[in-house]
């Protein structure tokens, strides 16, 4: 896990508790300094999901088997694609977490 600025410092984001989150190294690398990404459905730019201010359940759901994140909104779809949230490494990790009874999260 690494510390990520939800709003990147290069975009004026502060280094304080209200703008810092833990995320996996790979997701952080895919995000970079971006605030927006294209919605795969419309192609238009939309903001990436902000874990500090938005409700996960309004933008995402788990696939029935719990292995994949499904974007439920333009923000969710863009975030899933931009951060590669269903890459094979994460899907494999989720399989292990499911077998250990640790995934998907209860809430």
What descriptive keywords fit this protein?
107 residues; globular; two-stranded antiparallel sheet; alpha+beta
Commentary on this structure:
This protein is α+β, with helices and mostly antiparallel strands and 107 residues long. It has one domain. The protein is built from 4 helices and 6 strands. It has helices at 25-31, 56-59, 74-82, 88-99; strands at 2-5, 20-23, 36-38, 45-47, 60-62, 69-71. The strands form 3 sheets. The protein has a two-stranded antiparallel ribbon with strand order 1-2. A two-stranded antiparallel sheet has the order 3-4. The protein starts with a strand and ends in an 8-residue tail after the last helix. 16% of the residues are buried. The model has no long low-confidence stretch (mean pLDDT 94).
Radius of gyration: 14 Å
Category by helix and strand content? alpha+beta
User: Biggest β-sheet, characterized?
Assistant: 2 strands, antiparallel
Mean pLDDT: 94
Shape: globular
Lateral arrangement of strands in the main beta sheet:
1-2
End-to-end distance: 20 Å
Query: Spans of 5+ residues with little confidence (pLDDT < 50)?
Result: none
Would you kindly provide a brief summary of this structure?
This protein has helices at residues 25-31, 56-59, 74-82, 88-99, and strands at residues 2-5, 20-23, 36-38, 45-47, 60-62, 69-71. It has 107 residues and is α+β, with helices and mostly antiparallel strands. The chain has a two-stranded antiparallel sheet. A two-stranded antiparallel ribbon has the order 3-4.
